Amino acid sequence: MAISNNCSIIFLMIIALLSLSSITTTHAARGLLQLPNLPTIPSLSQPTMPKLPTIPNLPPLPTLPTAMPLPSLPTLPTVPKMILPPMPANVPLPNMPLLPTIPTFSPPPSN
């Protein structure tokens, strides 16, 4: 019970402190808003920038010599097409050997 009272007292003190700080902040802001108009600051003249130096013209680059045209590739000889004889219609497939069976072991006896 005593802890509950201490916590509520601390909580109330924090609320009071925040309320007082917001009152002083509001009062300071109102004081700033009620100041007379300040004199205007005269604008400064823009400084003149010196002219940038001119870049000298570069001499023209030499032109590359034109390359000789490449010779055309020789034509490849034509390869005769392979023609397979037709497959007979009713050819039985060879029998595949069966895979050997692996013996299965019985599970271990339970206790």
Descriptive tags:
111 residues; mainly alpha; flat
Order of helices and strands: H
Radius of gyration: 51 Å
Q: What best-fitting shape do the alpha-carbon axes yield?
A: flat
Tell me the helix content: 25-40%
Ends apart, CA distance between termini:
61 Å
Task: Provide a quick synopsis of the model.
The protein has 111 residues and is mostly helical.
Structure report:
This protein has 111 residues and is mostly helical. 29% of the residues lie in helices and 0% in strands. The chain has 1 helix and no strands. The radius of gyration is 51 Å and the shape is flat. The two termini are 61 Å apart. The mean pLDDT is 79.
SSE topology:
Blueprint (H helix, E strand, L loop, with lengths): L1 H32 L78
